Structure formats: C-alpha cells, structure tokens
C-alpha cells in the first residue's frame, strides 16, 4: 500500500457543485479606542491597589438641593409666559391672507351623489 494519496479524484471533482459561502470574522481585533480604554482601566486599578485606606480622611457631604413643588413651577411658568406675551412687538408681524381650502358640498351635490349610488 502506498503512502501517497490519490490525487486523481481531487482533479476530477466538479467545482460547479459547490455553494457560495460568505465568510464571517468571528474574532475581530480590538480597535485603538478599546485598547486605550483597557490601558486606562489598568492604570486606575494599579492606583487603587497601592492605596492605603487608613490614610484616607472622612468627608461629610451636605446636599442642599431643594426641589420646587408643582405650585412653584406653575407660577414660574405663568410669569415667563406673561412676560413673553406682554413684551411681544406686534409691529414686526407681516400681514397674511387666509384661504379656506376645505370645500363643503351643497345640498344639490349631496343629492346628486346619493342618486349616483
């Protein structure tokens, strides 16, 4: 028995029987932005690893944020609207003609349409 494979079958194979296949990259290389993010994360981790918690000072936070109630918001909105309306300069408006584009049918047109059905 010979160690060499039979090449004649490969040469005689009809490539027309093969289907077209799109290749898809499943493991893309990281972008430069991804690499930079990972480097920054590593630097932050190293800084935190070397940090001695006993050397930290306690800090108090005072939150002095007061949220307005619905009535205060309504009053502010009303004041802004009144100021905007009272300060409006009507002389800068241009004249505009209004044309009605809807047509209401007359009784005769309605009767004619009913008769056509």
Describe the structure.
- Keywords: Cytoplasm, Cytoskeleton.
- It is found in: Cytoplasm, Cytoskeleton.
- This protein is mostly helical.
- It is 43% helix and 0% strand.
- The mean pLDDT is 85.
Break the fold down into its secondary structure elements and pairings.
Layout: H1 8-12, H2 32-49, H3 70-86, H4 107-116
What brief labels describe this structure?
4 helices; mainly alpha; 117 residues
Shape: flat
How many helices? The count is 4
Radius of gyration: 40 Å
Poorly predicted runs: none
Question: Into which percent range does the helicity of residues fall?
Answer: 40-55%
InterPro entries: Beta-thymosin, Beta-thymosin_sf
GO molecular function: actin monomer binding
Keywords: Cytoplasm, Cytoskeleton
Subcellular location: Cytoplasm, Cytoskeleton
In short, what is this structure?
By secondary structure, the protein is an all-alpha fold. Helix content is 43%, strand content 0%.
């Amino acid at each position: 028995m010979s160690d060499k494979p039979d090449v004649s079958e490969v040469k005689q194979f009809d490539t027309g029987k093969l289907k077209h296949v799109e290749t898809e990259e499943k493991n893309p290389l990281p972008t430069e932005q991804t690499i930079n993010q990972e480097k920054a994360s590593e630097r932050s981790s190293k800084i935190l690893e070397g940090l001695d918690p006993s050397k930290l000072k306690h800090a108090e936070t005072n939150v002095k944020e007061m949220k307005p109630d619905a009535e205060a918001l309504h009053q502010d909105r009303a004041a802004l609207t009144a100021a905007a309306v009272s300060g409006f300069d009507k002389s800068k408006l241009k004249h505009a003609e209004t044309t009605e584009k809807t047509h209401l049918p007359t009784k005769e047109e309605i009767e004619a349409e009913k008769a056509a059905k």
